[in-house]
Structure formats: C-alpha cells, structure tokens
Specification:
The longest helix is centred in the C-terminal third of the chain and has 31 residues. The protein is α+β, with helices and mostly antiparallel strands. Strand 2 and strand 3 form a beta hairpin. The chain starts with a strand and ends with a strand. The protein is built from 13 helices and ten strands. The chain is globular, with a radius of gyration of 21 Å.
C-alpha cells in the first residue's frame, strides 16, 4: 500500500522527496549531514536523543517559525520519538506524496506559501535527513490519529465558514500543468547543468502546446514531460501562481535548477476553480486542523506513559 518505512531513533524515515510542485528544488538546497562528535542528552523509550539531534532541530524549528531554544528543541525531539514509537508498533508507512500535507501544514501555521516554506528550510541549513524524518513522522502520526478517529469530519457549515472567512480560498484559479524536466546525472557537474539549461531553452522555444510538446521527448534523450496534474492557486502559493499567470497557455515557464536537473512547468490550461474544487479545498484545510488537534491530544496521552530520561549536562 505505501512505500516508506518509518523508524525512530537516529535512523531515517526513508529517503522520500517532497513532491509538491513548489518544492522541486528543496532536496538540492538541504545539506547532507556532516560527521561530528555527539553525545546522548536523553533517551525516549530507550531511543537516544543526541546533541546533534538538538542542534539540527533548533535550525529546523527556526525555519518553521517556531520557538527554537535548546529546551524547545528537546521537547520537539521527545515528541518525534514518542510519536515514532507509536506508529512503528503498527508498521505505518508513508509515501513521498504524503509528505506534502505536512509541509503545507507548517506553511499554513507560519502564514507563508508552500514555496516560501521550502525556501526557509533550504536557507536553514538543517540536515536533509533530519528534515525528512521530522516531516515523515509528523505526517504518519496524523494519518494514525485520523485512522483512530474516523468520526473526525467536516460539516457543510464548517466548509461554508472557511470559504466566508478566507476570500483567497473562495476565489481560486485552477491550473492543469505538466512538469518539464531536463535530467542531469550528478557526475555531469556544472558543465552538465549548463548544457541542460541550453537544451531547456531550445525546448521552451519549441514547446507551444501541451499535447505536441510532450512529443519532444523523442528528440532529447534526457527530457521528461510528466503527466498533467491539476492544482489550484492556493495549493501552489503566490510566487508560483504569479509565474504561471504570466506564462501563455501551452508554453513553459522560466526554468530553475532542481535535484534532478533543470525543471520548468508547462501551463496546459487556466480557469476559475469550480464550486466543488473550492469546497474540497476548504474541507481539506478544516479537516487538517481537526486531525492535528486530535493528534496533539493523542500525543499528550502517549507522553504520560513514555519513559523519558534526560541526562545531566
């Protein structure tokens, strides 16, 4: 059913990439973990929390716009460890696509767009594995909380209130887009990226319709044109929406570097989001808040039974 295995402790929750379109470059900006001396400052259900964990969590919390003191980092690490212990009991797994809601949650919490949150995470210099582990545990625990209480739902009145309270979500544009990617193997280096950028410019000049543009893959061995997806302006965020708005229908946006090479988006269509789409978006936002509320209650209950030992420093 799902592809990523979740672990607690210092082990990674798998190497899942963030799949939201506004986060294409995130994996390339987050640094790999440096080798450094570390000591154990606490254990949670027998699982260690190290000085490196605390330092990385401080950087991550700061990027998320949350309190980032050593004490706050410790509390956050304990929370991750407690949640991981519980979801591991049931073998809960997540896919790369399921990490996007976690990033969206923290973007909403900080009152910034998805793209702005990605930029914050990249600028934080927090270790990539630490970020992925945090997001994966957060999302998996929410899925677990939702499964435990299927009665958590959204009423029609809740949806109406959300639409009335947020004009932005009530007046969205719907886009059908395709990712256009010129892949570059890591060993190709800067020269490979420069060559791919030149090829992408040629592709952009020839790409004038989504149907015919997809056939260009036969002319460029490293070109990928992905299947079309539909996204609303609220899902994409203001900066990416502005980029799509100034790109003619059937054409490709200005490219940027991502973890796999040089990426851009083809704009296949652009229209006012229909009523059902708007209500679905409002319902998803309300449901996300409700599930998060129940997840917090569940965590507090689990923490009272956790074995937490803090070492003196």
């Amino acid at each position: 059913m799902m592809s990523l295995r979740i672990f607690s402790g210092t082990r990674l929750v798998s190497k899942a990439g963030l799949t939201a379109l506004a986060l294409l470059a995130l994996a390339a900006t987050l640094p790999a973990s440096p080798a450094s001396a570390q000591s154990i400052v606490a254990t949670v259900n027998g699982d260690p929390v190290t000085t490196v964990d605390i330092a990385e969590r401080e950087k991550l919390l700061s990027a998320l716009g949350m309190p980032a003191s050593p004490a706050a980092a410790m509390d956050s690490m304990i929370k991750s460890r407690v949640e991981a212990t519980e979801i591991n009991k049931f073998g809960i797994k997540v896919t790369a696509a399921e990490l996007s809601p976690a990033v969206q949650y923290f973007a909403d919490r900080a009152h910034v767009s998805l793209e702005a949150m990605a930029a914050r995470l990249g600028a934080s210099k927090a270790d990539k594995k630490h970020v992925e582990n945090f997001l994966s545990i957060h999302q998996a625990f929410n899925l677990y909380a939702r499964a435990r209480n299927r009665a958590v739902d959204v009423s029609s009145a809740d949806i109406d209130a959300e639409l009335a309270n947020d004009p932005k979500i009530a007046h969205q544009t719907s886009y059908v887009i395709r990712q256009v990617l010129m892949t570059v193997p890591p060993e190709a280096g800067m020269a490979g990226l420069q060559q791919a950028a030149k090829q992408m410019e040629t592709v952009r000049a020839r790409f004038t319709a989504c149907e015919t543009g997809a056939k260009l893959v036969s002319d460029y061995p490293t070109l990928i044109v992905r299947d079309p997806v539909t996204r609303t302006s609220a899902q994409l965020g203001d900066p990416l929406t502005a980029l799509l708005e100034k790109t003619p229908i059937g054409h490709v946006t200005q490219p940027s570097r991502d973890a796999s090479g040089i990426a851009a988006l083809a704009v296949c269509s652009r229209s006012a989001a229909d009523k059902d789409t708007l209500r679905d978006a409002a319902a998803a936002r309300v449901l996300g808040r409700n599930v998060q509320r129940d997840a917090e209650k569940l965590y507090e209950e689990l923490r009272t039974h956790a074995v937490i030992v803090k070492n003196r420093q």
